[in-house]
Design goal:
single chain, mainly alpha, 89% helix, globular
């Protein structure tokens, strides 16, 4: 499964430039929605090896290209302050990893993996909604 994730990640990274031609917001909206779908699929069908392997390959395809969307958005949003914005983005990502590990661990200890994946799906949908709202705000500005 790890090999499948790695191969899918390589493929995703190779083709992301075609996907983000319409701007970074498409990437910042579609990726969280797709990842939320993967989390829900794992909740429902995680006991089936073929489904799990396929969905984890999709996770690799999508998850490895996520930073490309973030950095594209950052450089377009802050063209004169990309270095400072990049430093801030790295700090936010590190904080999110730490926060996610703590909250995910607590949720897992309380109720198992299903609630952890459900919380992940909910947060990803909130992220997609935030990107949609930001995209609309940018279009009207």
């Amino acid at each position: 499964m790890l090999l499948g994730i790695g191969i899918a990640g390589f493929i995703g990274t190779s083709f992301i430039s075609r996907f983000r031609k319409d701007g970074p917001y498409r990437t910042l909206i579609v990726i969280p929605v797709a990842m939320a779908g993967i989390a829900v699929t794992l909740i429902l069908f995680g006991g089936h090896l073929a489904v799990t392997a396929t969905v984890l390959a999709a996770w690799g395809l999508i998850g490895t290209v996520t930073p490309v969307g973030w950095w594209t958005w950052l450089t377009r949003s802050l063209p004169d302050d990309a270095k400072t914005g990049g430093d801030l983005l790295v700090a936010v990502i590190q904080h999110a990893i730490t926060f996610g590990a703590v909250i995910g661990g607590v949720l897992y200890d309380m109720s198992g993996y299903r609630i952890t994946f459900a919380a992940r799906a909910g947060l990803l949908l909130i992220a997609a909604l935030s990107a949609i709202l930001t995209s609309r705000q940018r279009q009207t500005a």
